[in-house]
């Protein structure tokens, strides 16, 4: 990320906005491959860092995942079925299949290859 784009990103942050994320990962390379393939996240070469839409973060070795406790990260997906196919193709698992959440949203939960619980939300167009 160039210094100008980094500065623009920081200046666009709103108070209270989620801006940085740390995800537990016993195998950072495996986590990077999963999130790049399934969600299109940009992965920093030779570093445990990533850039996702609206935030940056890193994979943290030595921190256990909390698949049954704590907050859940919910990611917007443009096509739920295609995303779930990618999830299983790249080592994740579908924990709760898609179900409607009101008239305009479908939700599903997955486990990433590192054991993290991730929510998926598809919004009606």
Describe this structure in words.
By secondary structure, the protein is of the alpha/beta class. It has a single domain, classed as 2,3-Dihydroxybiphenyl 1,2-Dioxygenase, domain 1 (Roll). It contains three helices and eight strands. The strands form two sheets. The protein has a four-stranded mixed beta sheet, covered by helices on one side. Strand 3 and strand 4 form a beta hairpin. The model has no long low-confidence stretch (mean pLDDT 88).
CATH class category name: Alpha Beta
**Average pLDDT, all residues:** 88
Task: Give the percentage of residues in beta strands.
Answer: 25-35%
Morphology call: globular
Largest sheet: spatial strand order: 1-4-3-2
Tell me which CATH architecture applies here: Roll
Number of strands: 8
Write out the CATH superfamily name: 2,3-Dihydroxybiphenyl 1,2-Dioxygenase, domain 1
Percent range of helical residues:
10-25%
**CATH topology category name:** 2,3-Dihydroxybiphenyl 1,2-Dioxygenase, domain 1
Low-confidence stretches: none
The total of helices stands at: 3
Using only CA atoms, what is the Rg? 15 Å
């Amino acid at each position: 990320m160039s210094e100008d784009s980094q500065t623009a990103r920081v200046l666009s942050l709103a108070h209270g906005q989620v801006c940085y994320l740390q995800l537990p990962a016993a195998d950072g390379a495996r986590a990077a491959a999963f999130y790049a393939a399934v969600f299109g996240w940009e992965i920093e070469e030779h570093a445990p860092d990533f850039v996702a839409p609206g935030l940056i973060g890193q994979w943290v070795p030595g921190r256990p995942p909390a698949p049954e406790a704590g907050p859940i990260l919910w990611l917007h997906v443009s096509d739920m079925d295609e995303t779930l196919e990618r999830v299983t193709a790249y080592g994740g698992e579908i924990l709760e299949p898609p179900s409607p959440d009101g008239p305009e949203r479908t939700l599903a939960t997955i486990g990433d290859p590192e054991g993290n619980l991730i929510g998926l939300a598809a919004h009606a167009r």
